Amino acid sequence: MNTKDIYVFIEQRDGVIQDVSYELLSEARKLVTAIKHVHFDVVGILIGNEIKDLVQSVIHHGADKVIVADHGSLAHYSTHYTTDIISDIIKTNAPDALLIGASVIGRDLAPRIAARVDTGLTADATKIEINPNESDSTELWITRPAFGGNLFGTIVCPNHRPQMATIRPKVLDADFFDGTRNGEIIEYKFTPRSIDKVVFKQRILKETHGIDIAKAKIIVSGGRGVIDHFDLLQEVATLLGGTVAASRGVVDRQRAPKEIQVGQTGKTVRPTLYLACGISGAVQHTAGMDKSEFIIAINLDASAPIFGIANVGIIGDAVKILPYLVEEIKLLKEHHIAS
Amino acid sequence: MNILCLVKQVPDTTEMKIDKVTGTLIRTGVPSIPNPDDMAGIEEALKLKDKYQAHLTAITMGPPQAEDMLRELLARGVDEVVLLSDMKFAGSDTWATSTTLAAFLKTLPYDLIIAGRQAIDGDTAQVGPQVAEKLGIPQVTYVEEIMDYTAPVLTVKKAYEDYSEILEVTCPALISTLNTMNTPRSMNVTDVWNAFEKPIRLVTFADLKLSEKDVGLKGSPTQVKKTFTRTLQANALKTNLSAQEAAKLVASYLSAYME
């Protein structure tokens, strides 16, 4: 079968396109540019209710075409309907690749589609490239962490199409934007073929434990080395106007809420400052924070891998250093106010 | 009420280390544990058993050593355990795994299938939804609470990144569970002893109506091209500082971030 084009699932929630979709559009543009021997378009799939005003934004961020399914029964995300629509589009259009954000929605949807259309899916990719060994290939080499981020694997899907991947939010840059671009809009006429056996009843906003760490500019993060001293971390974070985060070891022992977990199974953060206290820095953790602008690490073990990515590394006991740090920051603040 | 729980035995990835000389993963000495998200599913199933006298069957696919985990599940109160094991299943990706599991699950009566959201070795979160698709049943992933079951409707709370949703799903259905939703109960000594007298059902390729091209490496659309560990470069480290000196040093970098 002749397959062509790279498709991107445009995830919108309450009429807001999610950042990861823009990241994927930028990446898809890079991929179609890298494919020299055939012409591939970037095609967005946009699904929802009264979402037609979002189409131009999808084009401006990199799509050549947008397939739009706009229907009253699509107001709320439905695994059932969304799988039906995208699988139908795949069977008709035969895309070469389909990229989906590795959000809660994307990770719910992508495996279901892959099972239906009989193709391979690589989860939680952190890097995608075109097969570097062949000049006329459209094969995607998709790299992802495994074993808690201790190991990376590059996965290919040689004999099935589309090649599917979910890609972690925030690991790719949404750096493509051209507000003058024009694109083709294709309407997908959706009629539900069967009822959805999952019924949405109610949304509950979570009790906030503070700021969303994914949006925080300053993060004071703690691992097992400071598990009994998160009050100290909180004090430092409060003084700096930042927020506290934790490693998986702390969250798994139920000493910190899941919402503040950084790492492969937690959140990906990109703060301007990341202060890692008592965190050894298994790749499972660093995968979620290694794009921080400036990393300061305090750890007792000189061979801790966190020092490999830190801008400043201090071998020492964070539990002993933090109380002094609180005093030092207070002094600095007084100095700031005085000057 | 019949509940099927999908469980995987995994290496404890928090105990894994990288050989600093060869840059490879050290697997020897890493203990095998039941996958944490799956154990949360087992605990939820046991709660449903307490409430509705549900019958629980736990199913795993893996090497013969997974029997240890199945014995532990019997000791926790699971009624029956099944091991899907065959050399022909080796090398399965999530597509082949879900095909194999679905082929077996079709032979059992069920109202609810509970799978852990994801396994800590692969972290894909794909097998649950792919089993649901291949059985043609609805799914709710990322379940953080089972709120009610009034046959045939199960009410659950699903965790999103920043909020939760209450959803009703008509059974038979599949849900995937999060390890943070509960603390698995402990085993009592009598149950541990009794667990050794209960049978473990073994299912092999020959027991399933599948063709060889659908299982194992041959049945896997994805292939691993290469694996590697990330090499880290050591930065200049500050050592032999007193706690107070260290604090002063850190503070000197922090001043730039103060408003």
How are the elements arranged and paired?
The complex is a heterodimer of chains A (339) and B (259).
Chain A: E1 6-10, E2 12-13, E3 16-17, H1 19-34, E4 42-48, H2 55-60, E5 65-70, H3 79-93, E6 97-101, H4 104-117, E7 121-125, E8 127-130, E9 140-146, E10 151-156, E11 163-167, E12 184-187, E13 198-205, E14 218-222, H5 230-240, E15 243-246, H6 248-252, E16 273-277, H7 283-286, E17 294-299, E18 312-315, H8 318-338
Parallel strand pairs in A: 1-4, 1-6, 4-5, 5-12, 6-11, 7-11, 14-15, 14-16, 16-17, 17-18
Antiparallel strand pairs in A: 2-3, 8-9, 9-10
Chain B: E1 2-7, E2 9-11, E3 17-18, E4 25-26, E5 32-34, H1 36-52, E6 55-61, H2 67-76, E7 80-84, H3 94-105, E8 112-116, H4 127-135, E9 139-150, E10 153-159, E11 163-170, E12 173-177, H5 189-195, E13 201-203, E14 223-228, E15 237-238, H6 243-254
Parallel strand pairs in B: 1-6, 1-8, 6-7, 7-13, 8-12, 9-12
Antiparallel strand pairs in B: 2-5, 3-4, 9-10, 10-11
Short note summarizing the structure:
Chain A is of the alpha/beta class and 339 residues long. In chain A, 27% of the residues lie in helices and 27% in strands.
CATH class of the largest domain in chain A: Alpha Beta
The CATH architecture name of the largest domain in chain A reads 3-Layer(aba) Sandwich
Main β-sheet description of chain A: 7 strands, parallel
H and E string of chain A: EEEHEHEHEHEEEEEEEEHEHEHEEH
Biggest pleated sheet of chain B: 9 strands, mixed
Query: How many separate domains make up the residues of chain A?
Result: 2
Write up what this structure looks like:
The complex is a heterodimer of chains A (339) and B (259). The model of chain A has no long low-confidence stretch (mean pLDDT 92). Chain A folds into two domains: 6-187, Rossmann fold (3-Layer(aba) Sandwich), CATH 3.40.50; 213-338, 3-Layer(aba) Sandwich (Rossmann fold), CATH 3.40.50. In chain A, a hairpin with a 2-residue loop joins strand 2 and strand 3 (16-17). Chain A has a seven-stranded parallel sheet with strand order 7-11-6-1-4-5-12, with helices on both faces. In chain A, strands 15-14-16-17-18 form a five-stranded parallel sheet. In chain A, strands 8-9-10 form a three-stranded antiparallel sheet. Chain A is built from eight helices and 18 strands. The relative contact order of chain A is 0.11. Chain A has 339 residues and is α/β, with parallel strands linked by helices. Chain B has 259 residues and is of the alpha/beta class. Chain B has one domain (2-225): HUPs (Rossmann fold, 3-Layer(aba) Sandwich). Chain B has six helices and 15 strands. Chain B has helices at residues 36-52, 67-76, 94-105, 127-135, 189-195, 243-254, and strands at 2-7, 9-11, 17-18, 25-26, 32-34, 55-61, 80-84, 112-116, 139-150, 153-159, 163-170, 173-177, 201-203, 223-228, 237-238. Chain B has a nine-stranded mixed sheet, with helices on both faces. A two-stranded antiparallel sheet of chain B has the order 2-5. In chain B, helix 2 (67-76) links the parallel strand 6 (55-61) and strand 7. Chain B is globular. The mean pLDDT of chain B is 91. Classes of the chains: A alpha/beta (339), B alpha/beta (259). At the A-B interface, helix 3, helix 4, strand 7, strand 9 and strand 10 of A face strand 3, helix 3, helix 4, strand 9 and strand 10 of B. Strand 18 (312-315) of chain A pairs parallel with strand 15 of chain B, so a sheet runs across the interface.
